[in-house]
Task: structure prediction
Amino acid sequence: MSSPRVRYQLAVSIDGLIGPPDGNSDWLDPYGPVAITALEGFMPQIGGLVMGRVTYEQMRSFGPGPFDDTPTVVLTSRADLAVGPMARVCTEGPRASIEMIRDRLDGKDIWLFGGGVTASGFLAENLVDTIEITTVPVVLGTGMPLFPDVRGAVTFELVSSQVGESGTITTVYARG
Result:
């Protein structure tokens, strides 16, 4: 059985931030139709999600959504975190989260969904196979960096770059 790919797919501002300091996603509202179009092609390739607790709680605060039926692992230090029926809690780190979801993927990939701290942990353990960034034409100035805790260079190779609607650019990098 081949290993699933771990794909860090997300939107960033021109200045490389994944959100403002408070973590809200309002800055992405004008690009909602672009995101929906992108997800229509992306989600059929995804068998499960791994995310940090903060991202998970933010997604749950929006109410029922398209990810509720997708197997999910939430990385957290809080073993008592209440999660939905398709989610599991992992307190043991990135490798353990992959093992927890591997049998639920139906041969598809893992979406490393949101959370720069979580993504940094996956990078530190050399577990990110692709980084798929959609840059939106917004400068946030301050906020949450794409990889806040990376120490040292991690090399990726350009796979593709495509100009999208509303001035967005989607760039895909594979681990080098």
Remarks:
- The longest strand covers residues 6-13.
